[in-house]
Specification:
- Helices cover 29% and strands 30% of the residues.
- The chain is of the alpha/beta class.
- The protein folds into two domains: 9-138, Rossmann fold; 160-260, OB fold (Dihydrolipoamide Acetyltransferase, E2P) (Beta Barrel).
- The strands form four sheets. A five-stranded parallel sheet has the order 2-1-3-4-5, with helices on both faces.
- Strand 11 and strand 12 (221-224) form a beta hairpin.
- Helix 2 (43-53) runs parallel beside helix 3 (69-76).
Length: 263
């Protein structure tokens, strides 16, 4: 959850360094309180830094090598704690696609100071509006339109998982699971027996798990609470999770660090 009392943070992703520096300079004038916490030269690097730094805002160039800005936005849509997105591009024909990804704004290069100022105002309004207010406004609009929203009961938590383990299909009890991790088009399921694969996306899987027993620690990982041994901060300042009886450690995103403040 974003701490609105702290200075807002932003990441700039563009494959041209001088354009990243120019936008950072312009933002320093238009929004002095905004902290630029990182810059990325391509979409893959942008995703990694977003996981590590959890910025409130991401300024995304659309045409980048490896992964486009639209691809990055699509990946971020799976997270409840996704940052606000502003697309910055030299091409106006991407505008419809940009707003399909719920972008706060769409800037054409080079953006004038006045145009950037309007973007800043939109971002400030978007950050200051709490989710409860947004949900209330949406419900009020639906009521005015005469649209009823059905309330459905949540199904019981998932108990068993069918997963591919080598050439076999295993039936895994969720009690055996140590953690889940996004793995390209699949989700990896780690148990004491090794790694298995399922096709269910992590976002969909999270909705089926008991949130008291499984904790999301960043956009790409969910860990079993009983498997957590300790946390520590590494030399890069990242919060790391140690697991009972295992060598690997997992990165905890800033968005989920509050779970471990007392550890």
């Amino acid at each position: 959850m974003t701490d609105h009392s702290a200075a807002p943070t932003a990441l700039i992703a563009d494959d041209e360094a001088h354009l990243r520096d120019f936008l950072a300079s312009e933002l320093a004038q238009a929004w002095p309180a905004l902290r630029i916490v990182g810059q990325a030269a391509n979409g893959i690097e942008a995703l990694r830094l977003i996981d590590e730094l959890a910025p409130d805002i991401v300024f995304l160039d659309i045409q980048m090598p490896g992964m486009t800005g639209l691809d990055v936005a699509g990946k971020l849509a799976a997270s409840d704690a996704a940052p606000k997105i502003v697309f910055v591009t030299a091409h106006d024909h991407y505008a419809v696609a940009a707003f399909d990804h719920a972008a706060v704004d769409y800037l054409l290069k080079p953006a004038s100071a006045a145009r950037l100022g309007r973007t800043v105002k939109r971002l400030q309004s978007a950050i200051e509006a709490p989710p409860a207010v947004e949900a209330g406004a949406l419900r009020a609009l639906l009521d005015q339109l005469g649209v009823s929203v059905a309330v459905t009961s949540k199904p019981p938590p998932l108990q068993w998982i069918r997963a591919a383990h080598g050439e076999q299909i295993r039936l895994i009890s969720v009690d055996e699971v140590i953690y889940f991790q996004s793995n390209d088009k699949y989700t990896s399921v780690f148990t004491n027996e090794g790694e298995s694969l399922i096709r269910t996306p992590l976002r969909q899987l999270r909705e089926q798990l008991d949130e008291a027993r499984f904790w999301q620690i960043h956009r790409g990982a969910i860990v079993a609470a009983k498997a957590v041994a300790a946390t520590h901060t590494d030399f890069r300042g990242r919060l790391m999770l140690r697991l009972k009886g295992r060598q690997e450690e997992l990165v905890v995103s800033r968005n989920y660090a509050e779970l471990f403040r007392q550890m």
